[in-house]
Amino acid sequence: MKAAVYKGIGLIEVEEIEKPVISDGELLVQVKACAICGGDARTFRHGHKAIKPPIVLGHEFAGDIVQAGKNVTNYKIGDRVIVAPGIGCGMCSYCLSGHQNLCYTRKTIAHHYNGGFAEYVRIPENAVRAGNVNFIPDAVDYLSASLAEPLACVINGQEAMNIQLGDTVAVIGAGPIGLMHAELAKAHGAGKIFLINRSGKRLETAQHFNYDAYIDLSKEDGVKAIMDLTSGMGANVVIVTAGNAEAQSMGIQMTSKMGKTCLFAGLPKDNPMLQFDVNFVHYRQITLYGTFSSAPRHNALAIEMIRSGKIDVDKILTHIVSLDDTCLGMDLVEKRAGLRIGIVPNIDAIADDIKKHPNLILAKK
Among 67, 264, 10, which residue's Cα sits nearest to residue 156? Predict the structure, then answer.
């Protein structure tokens, strides 16, 4: 089969490798679409301590089951599926409470197993058994379904935040994850949504979402802007999707009394410390949250929110490339061209799905 194999920092080669052979408890999925996570692009350029090349990256994939092991009873050939990539042990307190993303022995597709930048991907038995494989509703096309995984992570983040009707929500970061956060907050009934970004280009791209304010950090002070917009109170909920200490500190400073701040992104490993005024947090009774990845239940909810139209991912998936052009896709992510970028192993095979996304750009070398 054809696959884009990550062989080390800055090196991905599209080549023929052996098609996976599955065991009696496993599934083989033919990939129809796989979105590129920002983490994939970072691994490509900088490496990842948990990823040992050669390996196939890509964990945001959707496709068809083409083989099912004889011991698999809940899935069959022809089922359209997405897969939650994080696989817990199933026995620890985190797994048993539905927080498999926090399992200490968690394994991940595209970290420990080959991922979806390929024509086929093997789904390990422990993932099949743990319920990581979710069905794609008939009304959802493969391209839209490929965005269920990042949306699942956003759902996990907002589960802790418990956004209420009428809340004022500020989102720092206008990339695809930030926009998913803003859209999910809207679906939860947020009264006002403010989008903040240091790149005016990204804010311009997001104008059609019609948020209450777009704050360009290259032109104005973000904290002052939020205070002005809220009569000095600050935002009830602040979600920081930028892996930047300045952005995270700013997010805390613009949070209202009894408000909540979500640090949705980590900081660089060589400089992970964040300085902020603890008294500010203490006397305003601000709650800080950190959230990471998602569990299979979030994945199932994500695909349902896409089906219902509560989250319109058509606005977020802006470009696709062929599997042969995987490196071009990485470049588009790094250059922040559009929003989410998808890889399609066989363009012709999902031609009808592509027609459902009239604004989608097919990028080529």
Answer: 264
User: Which residues of the chain form CATH 3.40.50.720?
Assistant: 154-290
CATH of domain 154-290: 3.40.50.720
Q: Are 141 and 356 in contact (CB under 8 A)?
A: yes
Residue 58 has pLDDT above 90, yes or no: yes
205-255: per-residue pLDDT in tens?
A: 999 999 999 999 999 999 999 999 999 999 999 999 999 999 999 999 999
DSSP type of residue 113: B
Q: For strands 80-83 and 86-87, give the pairing.
A: unpaired
Percentage of residues in the chain having pLDDT higher than 70:
100
Domain 2-147+316-362: give its CATH code. 3.90.180.10
Measure the CA angle with vertex 41, ends 114 and 58; round to 5°. Answer: 25
Q: What is the pLDDT of residue 270?
A: 85
Confidence of residue 199 (pLDDT cuts 50, 70, 90): confident
Looking at residue 365, what is its pLDDT? 85
**What single string gives the DSSP state of each residue in 147-171?**
THHHHHHHHHHHHHH---TT-EEEE
360: left (phi over 0), alpha (psi -120 to 50) or beta: beta
Q: Which residue has the tokens 């809207």?
A: 186
Domain with CATH 3.90.180.10 in the chain: 2-147+316-362
